[in-house]
Design brief:
CATH class of the largest domain: Mainly Beta
Bound molecules: heme C
Shape: elongated
Strand content: 15-25%
CATH architecture of the largest domain: Sandwich
Helix content: 25-40%
Number of strands: 10
Radius of gyration: 37 Å
Distance between the termini: 122 Å
Length: about 400
């Protein structure tokens, strides 16, 4: 049965035209969508017809980006401060450590007291810190060529043994958790910006006080002692954290802080914490500005001046000193009855923790007596100072012009 009207009456030419047009439209769309457009890719080769069709309808053997190797997840360290880790650290055997430590002395110094400015002193460092840093070097989380190689050769037990050995050495870094500044010193009103950063931080920049983690006065697990560490090393590590070259700090603790510091601040912080004299073993006593004056021909006495800071947590006492150019005596000037007298200071000069004492023309100073030669401007006078606790410290006094009242007056 037929119909003489409607789309299915193929006798009607309009119907046929309609059907053909629809079919042509579908055909062209298919060709455009699945073949022509699908063949041309923005960043790839032109596909053959078959793959173009497959791709267009979503079938593909190529997994694309999903199949590419992903960079490994970046974690700062393999160490977490779990009770297992701490038990492993505590299991370290000092005596076994001493044997392995023979491999370290060439760089870190005998007993871990490093003679070199860019190599950290390990003696007295917290065992957990040594253990973690060794593992970070081993796993490549902290990069420094030779240390990486050294650490790879160690087992975890070796690390624990070494940590126990170095942590137990004296004469290196003082204990971190000692006394800090008195409360009054920990104020944001503190005038010295470096001391302010260390003991009060800078809330404006989100910088917490360094002392809260590094001491003096407090200690956070995993934070290395800085007091007595080489200043140059401290400064380099701060720069490394700031520039992202060192990334092994858990939770970016140090990177976040270091990026907030200016290079001048890094330098000042390192100078405050660090051992002053790079080729003297780190100590609590810091000496700065040692100077003396040129002497006129024939003169046999001279004065020697310097500034001493006690960065430790115990009082120390400057007892005396010696020099090859003459007798070296600690003197005190006083004027009890209006008459200025100068006499040797008996019993030495006490320097309290945190105290800075200036030995200047006037009050306290060293006298050079019985000079064997006259002192010439621009020269240096070598002397050894003797402290009750810090022991002997070598100092080079710069010879300034005759009559100079302050160091550097000659230039
Ligand atoms: C060739 C010299 C060299 C030798 C040998 C060497 N070290 Fe080091 N070590 C370094 C230097 C340099 C650094 C500081 C790297 C840096 O600047 O990041 C360092 C850093 C370290 C630190 C990190 C300390 C910190 O304050 O973060 C530890 C721990 C350490 N070494 C332990 C050892 C032990 C243990 C040995 C012996 C098994 C050893 N090192 C052998 C040169 C050496
Ligand atoms: C929240 C605690 C915290 C504060 C605050 C902090 N540090 Fe640290 N710092 C650490 C920890 C933890 C490490 C050890 C990172 C690691 O595991 O390698 C470290 C490492 C360092 C090191 C590298 C020492 C070494 O022996 O390798 C230096 C230098 C340093 N800090 C300086 C500072 C200074 C300066 C400040 C103050 C401006 C400061 N830190 C504030 C926690 C802190």
């Amino acid at each position: 049965m037929g119909r003489d009207q409607g789309p299915f009456n193929l006798a009607n030419p309009w119907s046929r035209i309609g059907w053909w047009s629809t079919a042509a439209l579908v055909g062209v769309s298919f060709a455009l969508g699945f073949v022509v457009l699908a063949r041309f890719q923005v960043d790839g080769p032109t596909l053959d017809v078959w793959s173009a069709i497959c791709r267009a309808i979503g079938i593909t053997a190529d997994l694309g980006p999903a199949g590419e190797p992903q960079p490994p997840l970046r974690t700062p360290t393999r160490i977490a401060w779990t009770s297992d880790t701490l038990a492993q650290v505590a299991s370290g055997n000092e005596h076994s450590g001493a044997m392995v430590a023979l491999n370290c002395g060439a760089c870190h110094g005998e007993g871990g007291v490093s003679p070199s400015a860019f190599i950290p002193t390990l003696a007295g460092m917290d065992a957990a810190v040594i253990y973690k840093q060794l593992d970070d070097f081993r796993s490549g989380k902290r990069l420094w060529g030779v240390m990486g190689a050294m650490a790879t050769a160690l087992s975890m037990q070796d690390s624990a043994d070494l940590a126990a050995y170095f942590a137990g050495r004296a004469d290196g870094l003082p204990p971190v958790a000692g006394e800090g500044l008195p409360r009054s010193g920990r104020s944001l009103r503190q005038s010295d910006p470096t001391i302010r950063l260390i003991f009060a931080g800078d809330p404006g920049r989100g910088v917490p006080p360094c002392a809260a983690c590094h001491g003096p006065g407090a200690h956070k697990l995993g934070a290395p002692a800085l007091q007595g560490q080489h200043a140059a090393y401290i400064e380099r590590q701060l720069a490394a954290f700031a520039q992202g070259m060192r990334q092994n700090d858990i939770n970016k603790q140090m990177r976040t802080i270091a990026t907030q510091l200016t290079t001048d601040e890094m330098h000042a912080l390192a100078a405050y914490y660090g051992a002053q004299d790079a080729d003297v073993a780190p100590r609590n006593i810091a000496i700065s500005n040692p100077w003396t004056r040129a002497t006129p021909k024939g003169a046999t006495v001279g004065g020697a001046y310097l500034t001493i800071t006690n960065k430790g947590i115990e009082a120390d006492r400057l007892i005396g000193g010696s020099s090859s150019v003459g007798k070296f005596e600690l003197h005190q000037m006083s004027a009890p009855n209006g008459v200025t007298t100068m006499r040797p200071l008996r019993g030495g000069l006490e320097i309290n923790p945190g105290q800075t004492v200036m030995l200047e023309p006037g009050l306290f100073h060293f006298m050079l007596l019985g000079l064997k030669r006259s002192l010439v401007e621009g020269d240096h006078v070598h002397a050894t100072l003797e402290f009750a606790k810090a022991g002997d410290i070598d100092v080079d006094f710069a010879v300034e012009a005759i009559g100079a009242l302050t160091p550097g007056a000659a230039d």
